[in-house]
Amino acid sequence: TFLDGGMRLLGIEPHTGNILIERRLSGITGDSGDAKNTTSSIAVLPDVLSSDGSHIYLRDLIFDLEGTPQDKGEPHLQASAGFLDDSWVHRMYWRFGTKPFGPKRDSKLSYQLVNVSLTGRILSFEESLVYGFGRTFAPGNIGRMWSAGVKYHLFCAGKNEAAKADAMERLPRRGREVTGKPLIDYTWTKDISLQARAMVLARDTLFVAGPPADAHKSMESWEGKKGALLQGVNAA
């Protein structure tokens, strides 16, 4: 939004291609430009848009269905580095929640979200449940990112669990505030023999696909030279 006059948010009628909504997103304060409905002082990168049916989300930005900026939305799918980023950095992951979420928001604390909110490397959801593949809870040390006790698991949890982390004024730190158990009440968790890079929920079956589980130790596995695995799990 700070380059080349900012970005445009467009609402297009799918049957005709007519532009129904056009909003300019600019990071340059005071630059009114020649577009209507300018929103100033916005710092955001382009990304895939998401929606909960009543709001539109672009990273940290929230709009109603007419493209008007909003202060608050509903629980929705978020990606701290954007939906198109496929890197495996330990502080970059997907999250289902309401509060703004990303490196510039949680540079020192974002790694703790894995213990207190619905986060994973990849997520899928339906009307009432969220499914994901992510790190397990590290008991006794909420920031134990490199501990041998931290592993990956496939999980399922109710969407209502997202409200727990969103209601927290700040994330718990190390020491007496750490309870020794995850804040999220999982419906179920499961160890799987792969690192999930793709996930889709098909009725009662959750399909996951990716390289073998030793990919964190083997560069050949990580690069896909050992092939990939597909696994179907009962989603109930």
What would you say this structure looks like, in words?
- With 236 residues, this protein is mainly β.
- It has one domain.
- It has 3 helices and 15 strands.
- It has helices at residues 113-116, 162-166, 219-222, and strands spanning 7-12, 19-25, 50-51, 55-58, 61-64, 76-79, 94-97, 118-120, 122-125, 129-135, 152-158, 188-190, 198-202, 205-210, 229-234.
- A 4-stranded antiparallel beta sheet has the order 9-10-11-12, with no helix packed on it.
- A hairpin with a 3-residue loop joins strand 3 and strand 4.
- The protein is globular and about 45 Å long.
Summed up:
With 236 residues, the protein is mainly beta.
Structural class: mainly beta
Beginning-to-end CA distance, first to last residue: 43 Å
H/E element sequence: EEEEEEEHEEEEHEEEHE
> How large is the count of helical segments?
3
Report the β-strand fraction as a percent range. Answer: 25-35%
Count of β-strands: 15
* Biggest beta sheet attributes: 4 strands, antiparallel
How would you state the average pLDDT, rounded? 78
Which strand order does the major sheet show? 9-10-11-12
Total discrete domains: 1
Give the fraction of residues assigned to helices: under 10%
Write the layout of secondary structure elements.
Layout: E1 7-12, E2 19-25, E3 50-51, E4 55-58, E5 61-64, E6 76-79, E7 94-97, H1 113-116, E8 118-120, E9 122-125, E10 129-135, E11 152-158, H2 162-166, E12 188-190, E13 198-202, E14 205-210, H3 219-222, E15 229-234
Antiparallel strand pairs: 1-2, 3-4, 4-5, 6-7, 7-8, 9-10, 10-11, 11-12, 13-14, 14-15
